[in-house]
Design a protein that fits this description.
Length: about 140
């Protein structure tokens, strides 16, 4: 009887969440070297996503060689980067915003503690995603 009760609990995977068609979310970006904050704006009806990274962010320093803020624009199937210090906007790579249902075929990794919260972790190559009660907590790629 104990094995029958334990097996369903071990095999349990919570349902994946479909993102709202539009939302904004503040985020924290941290590495072992530094940390910063930013904001993501998402609007699937426009096939657009904007990610604003603060000055000294890893993203801006590592990919765009600036200590100033940078903004990433995912429009349809392209990524554009705007570097505030130089005023330069350029096409970076061919990748668009994630669709609201991008987690539907993701693999449930398990429940972990992230930022003090009990979070469900999902993997959909190359992304890892943690959510708490349907709210995004951590995203990596």
């Amino acid at each position: 009887l104990l094995l029958a009760m334990a097996a369903p609990a071990a095999a349990y995977a919570p349902p994946t969440h479909i993102w709202p068609l539009s939302f904004s979310q503040r985020f924290y970006c941290g590495t072992t070297e530094q940390s910063s904050y930013g904001t993501m704006y998402y609007d699937w009806t426009q096939r657009a996503q904007r990610v604003e990274h603060a000055q000294y962010s890893y993203e801006c320093q590592h990919f765009y060689s600036t200590n100033g803020p940078c903004t990433l624009y995912f429009l349809n199937s392209s990524l554009y980067a705007y570097v505030e210090d130089t005023g330069v906007c350029c096409h970076d790579i061919d990748v668009g915003p994630l669709s609201p249902d991008w987690l539907v075929n993701a693999t449930f990794i398990g429940t972990t503690r992230t930022d003090g919260l009990g979070c469900n972790q999902w993997q959909s190559d190359p992304h890892n995603y943690w959510e708490h009660s349907g709210v995004p907590v951590l995203f990596s790629f």
